């Protein structure tokens, strides 16, 4: 793989892996704050980031060895409202700045699997930002997120609060979605 794309994919792998852990931590905070459904959203989104990290890791399958990985990653444990805001900003950074730049490079270098992995991630992160916004509005009104089941697409990391026919991003059958 061309080095700029492999460097970018490793950085994205680092960012997704850290986001996963961070969301599990913020989910625990949400539960402590009394927002059980927000915890479920954080946990579902954590698993979505694992999907993205896995796509990137597999795209790098021919690149064995040890690397120093530098990634943009948020830190801090604050109120659930503030954690949701930070989570949303992270998703927006990834979907509007980081991935579009990385995809442009990967397309130029004709790295098809890398492009596919990062396009799935970009589209899913945009949706994650919207879901976190919905959760933040509820929490700021003093309420828990008003959802029954949260569904995760195991192929691309798309998250929805309602039953759908198939994944609008990757076409995965809804029957394969994971419930939270
Ligand atoms: Fe995300
Ligand atoms: Fe999907």
UniProtKB/TrEMBL annotation:
<dbReference type="InterPro" id="IPR003251">
    <property type="entry name" value="Rr_diiron-bd_dom"/>
</dbReference>
<protein>
    <submittedName>
        <fullName>Rubrerythrin-2</fullName>
    </submittedName>
</protein>
<feature type="domain" description="Rubredoxin-like">
    <location>
        <begin position="148"/>
        <end position="180"/>
    </location>
</feature>
<dbReference type="InterPro" id="IPR052753">
    <property type="entry name" value="Rbr2/Nigerythrin"/>
</dbReference>
<dbReference type="Pfam" id="PF02915">
    <property type="entry name" value="Rubrerythrin"/>
</dbReference>
<dbReference type="InterPro" id="IPR024934">
    <property type="entry name" value="Rubredoxin-like_dom"/>
</dbReference>
<feature type="domain" description="Ferritin-like diiron">
    <location>
        <begin position="1"/>
        <end position="143"/>
    </location>
</feature>
<dbReference type="InterPro" id="IPR009040">
    <property type="entry name" value="Ferritin-like_diiron"/>
</dbReference>
